[in-house]
From TrEMBL:
SUPFAM superfamilies reported in the protein's UniProt record: MFS general substrate transporter
Record's bilayer topology term: Multi-pass membrane protein
Source taxon at top rank: Eukaryota
UniProt subcellular location: Membrane
Transmembrane segments: 32-54, 74-93, 105-125, 131-147, 159-177, 189-212, 292-315, 330-352, 359-379, 391-417, 438-458, 464-482
UniProt-recorded name of the protein: Polyol transporter 5-like protein
Domain Major facilitator superfamily (MFS) profile intervals: 36-486
Organism: Carex littledalei
NCBIfam families per UniProt: SP
Family of this protein: Belongs to the major facilitator superfamily. Sugar transporter (TC 2.A.1.1) family.
Chain intervals for the UniProt region annotation (Disordered): 1-26
Any Gene Ontology CC annotation: membrane
Gene Ontology molecular function terms on file: symporter activity
Amino acid sequence: MEEEKIESVEAHLLPSNSSNSSNQGRHKKNKYALGCGVLASMTSVLMGYHVAVISGAQKYMQADLNVSDTQIEILNGILNLASLFGSFAASYTSDRIGRRATITIASAIFFVGSLIMTFATSFLILMVGRFVTGIAVGFSLMIAPVYTSEIAPTSMRGLLSSLPEVFINSGILLSYVSNLAFSGLPINLSWRIMFGIAAIPPAFLACGILTMPESPRWLVMKGRLGEARHVLVKTSDSPEEVDARLRDIKEVVGIPLDCSGDVVTVPRIEKNEENIWKEMFTDRSTPAVKRIIFTVLAIQFFQQASGTEAVVLYTPRVLEKAGLKSDTELLGATILVGLAKLGFILVATFTSDRLGRRLLFLLSAGGMVISYIILGLGLEIIDWTHEENFSWAAVVCILAVVAVVMSFSIGLGPLAWVYSSEILPLRLRGQGASLGTVMNRTMSGVVAMTFISLYEAITVAGSFFLFAGITAMGWVFIYFCLPETKGRSLEDIEVLFEK
């Protein structure tokens, strides 16, 4: 049955004309891996949409259901905090029933969350809907990068591992378009339709995901070597890479390298979750493992503590402070922010394997620091002059907001997930990815639930100066602590952290 599904996907993704040419074979296999990565990352579109749609919908929700600013902060933050539960649940299901089934579960939960939000009649029901959606966000954040990194050949790992972030930002852009498209409807319908249309894609997506192959690494961990090799043949650049990838995975899992059966017994110790946690957090852990876990937590901390969630969730409020007044102006400018965000995600996606992760990280964090300082100064000038009309300072603020998301999207946004996924050893990947997601979502929730209160306490400009300082600390960490991983095999990267 598994082979039939794999062949079904291949029939759709690859040309029917086969060839023994190594160049053509490489093209076909990479195209197949790309197709699998795209399907796996589609849940990230839903995630991005649900995270950001409330940015433009909150004004209409407040008018329709009398929701306060504090309750809006809670609604924004609860999604991120609920994703913690989804992250741990995804860690469990991804190891027990597989990466592919976990992605399907995420789609189903997104469907349920969309319906609850659409028909909500009170703040309490809104909370339930956002909590359910948050669980799906946790599933998507944890499993999509893991699957794409495990399915990708070395030559395309940066590209495929960036796909979830590309699709997250595609979803964010779609949510901004939805905000503008439905803003002219009656208040009691506009925000409901913004959430309701997100219930349509998951039904089709779940069917498509079922045609994907399972992760070859998960198959090896379950002793299904024959199926794993079958998938590796279709997702590797050459027969030599097939053998190398399979050998590396078998070595990590503990299967003898000379074992060639289709189904083998995997040592029990590799399935013992308690042993995995002990290896990460007790004296049994090696210096390399300690450094890897610390690096994963730190890079996820700085990705969200840099304040990008405030820009995504509260863009209309920030632009309103900058001088834009009408809904059309605010939501139109928000779409411009979304386009910039998506465009530079694509730049990072197609250059990370050539320029490397480290350079893009440094450019990203440095650009954000400068943009935040300019944005803060522009807002201070507007506040000092009490300028009522659109002015040059407002233009500077809008361009600075665009520059913030552009800088974030060229490095910290997509590559934090790529880097975290590829430096974690296979035996620690499920639990390590969950820990990174926990840190990411916790900081995201803190920023989302405190931004309004923060800018009321220290002004909007002061908030962005604070984010500039935190991001500068992140730049220092990246410069001194992150080794380059470009072009290295997943199993070889652990050696980098022994130094």
